[in-house]
Amino acid sequence: MKTGIVESDLVLTVSPHYVKELTYGPDKGVELDGVLRTKPLEIGIVNGMDVYEWDPSTDKYTSVKYDATTVTEAKALNKERLQAEVGLPVDSSIPVIVFVGRLEEQKGSDILIAAIPEFVGENVQIIVLGTGKKKMEEELMQLEVKYPNIARGIAKFNVPLAHMMFAGSDFIIVPNSHLFITWRTC
């Protein structure tokens, strides 16, 4: 990685904040902060979903397509299919919270894993899909053991399941090392 950075003319990042984060110190720049400070850093492709690939009215990975006029009925059906797919009790009245992403401190996955026990007393289900640090993957895999009717942790890369999760969830949780965001999906 260091050689690639040294030999490059320009380094692209995903956001203005990430440029600052990478050059802040060894923990944020994964010990490449010094070499990164010697290069021109530019904003590149910003994180986000491809609006065509993830369009719920045409998404090839979801069984029930929907748009603004059919979202209520379709989301409930997609939720039930998601619950069945991951082995949770099927009940469209239970709010489903999902996370899809890398299991790294930088992405806030440690915050998410630590917060899951706080949800146990609530009437919710939590599904986490991701890969990354082995310790976090192991903690993720224990969710089903600890909370069999509430949580699922899937430590693998699975594009069709990620699409199902966004199509069938009520909330998407997006933690990172700086903040914790949750938003309703319909």
Automatic annotation (TrEMBL):
- Tell me, what is one Gene Ontology molecular-function annotation carried by this entry? glycosyltransferase activity
* Residue intervals of the Starch synthase catalytic domain: 1-37
InterPro entries, alphabetically? Answer: Starch_synth_cat_dom (IPR013534)
Q: Which UniProt keywords apply?
A: Glycosyltransferase, Starch biosynthesis, Transferase
Alphabetical list of Pfam families matching this protein: Glyco_trans_1_4, Glyco_transf_5
Biological process (GO), any one = starch biosynthetic process
Pathway noted in the entry: Glycan biosynthesis; starch biosynthesis
Return the PANTHER family for the record.
GRANULE-BOUND STARCH SYNTHASE 1, CHLOROPLASTIC/AMYLOPLASTIC, STARCH SYNTHASE, CHLOROPLASTIC_AMYLOPLASTIC
Q: What is this protein called?
A: Granule-bound starch synthase 1 chloroplastic/amyloplastic
Q: Whose protein is this, by species?
A: Zea mays (Maize)
